[in-house]
C-alpha cells in the first residue's frame, strides 16, 4: 500500500534550496491538439498529413472521435505508417516549431493474416485454394483504435528527484521554471482484435481516437508496464503472447484493476497451495478406494483435448504452457490409477507392470462403472448432436479444427458430468473421507476467484460458463461433507483410519497416565 501511495503521490518540491519546476498548465491551461500521419518517424511538415484538429481542447474531458484516414500507396504495398500528436498553445499557428510537445508511434504493424473460416460441407469440401506462402507471410495491419492522454495532475517536481517513469516524457522550458504538458500515446490499448488488414485497394482506413486525461500515478504504472512488455519481447515473447495481459489493463476500469491485483495475488497463492497438496496427496496415495478412477482418466483426456485446442487456436504461451504442465500432471495421475511401474531391462528395453486391485477397489470400480453407464446415456447424444450442429452451421478452418472444436465443446459444456461419478461414489459409500479435502478447498477458492476473472479476461463463452459449472459441483460436495460426517473407523485418503493412526502413535497420553498410576 505504501508503494502504491508513493506511485500516485510523488514527493512534492519543498525547501528553500530545491530546484522546483511547475506544470506549464498552471501558466497556460488552454491547449489545442492535432493529429497527423506520415510514412516516416522523424517527418517534417511537408511529409505529414493532418487528420484531426481538436481546437476546443478541454484537459479534463473524455472525447471520442471517429476518423477516416487516407492510406498512402507505399503503406498499401506492405509499408508502414506513423501517427504524430502535437500540442499547441491555444491560438498559435499549427507548425512543428510552435508545438510545445510532440510524440509519435506506429499506427500499423506486421502480422500474419488470420485463418479463413469455411463451410466444410460446401462445394469445395474444405479444400479452398489459397496463394502459396500467403498464410506465413506477415502483412501490414492497421491499428483501428488510438488513445491519447495528457497528464492532468497539477504537481510541482524537484528537478533532482524526478521519478524515472516520467523522466523520459519530461520537457522543461528554457527558463527552467516549468515543464511542458506530458503527452502520452497509450500503446497498451493496441490490441490484436482491433487490427485490420491493409490491402492494395484500401485507400482509407477507420480510426477511433479517444482523448482521456491521465493521472501521474497511472502514467507511471503504464510506463512501467510498457517497459515490462518490451523485456518480455526481448525474451522471445511475441505481441500475441502479451496481448491478453494488455487487455486486462486496456479494457478494465482502472480502480477495478487495482482490486484485481489483490485478487490475483490470492489466486497465485491458492494455485501454489493446491498444486503442492495435490502432488503430495497423489504421491502418497497407494489405493483407489473411494475415488473415481474413470473421473481421473476422463479429466486427463479433457486436459489433453484442451491443450491441443489451444495449440490449434495459436493461443498465447502464457496460457498454453500451464495447460501443457497440467497435461503432464494428469498423465502422471493416470499412471498412479493403474499402479503402473516401468522397469528398465536393457539399454533401450523396458517392461510394464500393472499393480493388482483389492476387493475394496473392485467394489469402488463397480460403483464407478454404474455411474458412468447412466451418464453415457446423456453425454454421448449431447456431444454427437453438438458436433453435427457445428458441422452444418458453423464455419471452421479445417476438418481437424472441427474435430477439436467438437471435442472441446463437449469438454466445456458437459465436462461437469465427468465430476458426477465421484458424487455418486460418495453417495454409495456414505463417506467423503477419501477425498483430498485440503487440495480440494484450495481449488474451490480459486474457482470462485475464476468467476471474477471470467468478467475481466476475454475468453470463449463456453470457457466462461465452465468457470461457473464448477461452483455447482463444489456446493454439492459441501452438502455431502455435511451429510456424511467423519467416521473415524473409515480409511482416509492415505488408506489409514483415525484409530489406526492412534495405535501407530502408541497413544502417548495414555502411557503417561499409566506411569502415574504405577
TrEMBL record:
<dbReference type="GO" id="GO:0016020">
    <property type="term" value="C:membrane"/>
</dbReference>
<dbReference type="GO" id="GO:0012505">
    <property type="term" value="C:endomembrane system"/>
</dbReference>
<dbReference type="InterPro" id="IPR008429">
    <property type="entry name" value="CLPTM1"/>
</dbReference>
<comment type="function">
    <text>Scramblase that mediates the translocation of glucosaminylphosphatidylinositol (alpha-D-GlcN-(1-6)-(1,2-diacyl-sn-glycero-3-phospho)-1D-myo-inositol, GlcN-PI) across the endoplasmic reticulum (ER) membrane, from the cytosolic leaflet to the luminal leaflet of the ER membrane, where it participates in the biosynthesis of glycosylphosphatidylinositol (GPI). GPI is a lipid glycoconjugate involved in post-translational modification of proteins.</text>
</comment>
<feature type="transmembrane region" description="Helical">
    <location>
        <begin position="254"/>
        <end position="275"/>
    </location>
</feature>
<keyword id="KW-0812">Transmembrane</keyword>
<comment type="similarity">
    <text>Belongs to the CLPTM1 family.</text>
</comment>
<feature type="transmembrane region" description="Helical">
    <location>
        <begin position="399"/>
        <end position="420"/>
    </location>
</feature>
<feature type="transmembrane region" description="Helical">
    <location>
        <begin position="374"/>
        <end position="393"/>
    </location>
</feature>
<dbReference type="Pfam" id="PF05602">
    <property type="entry name" value="CLPTM1"/>
</dbReference>
<feature type="region of interest" description="Disordered">
    <location>
        <begin position="499"/>
        <end position="518"/>
    </location>
</feature>
<feature type="compositionally biased region" description="Basic and acidic residues">
    <location>
        <begin position="502"/>
        <end position="518"/>
    </location>
</feature>
<protein>
    <recommendedName>
        <fullName>Lipid scramblase CLPTM1L</fullName>
    </recommendedName>
</protein>
<keyword id="KW-0472">Membrane</keyword>
<keyword id="KW-1133">Transmembrane helix</keyword>
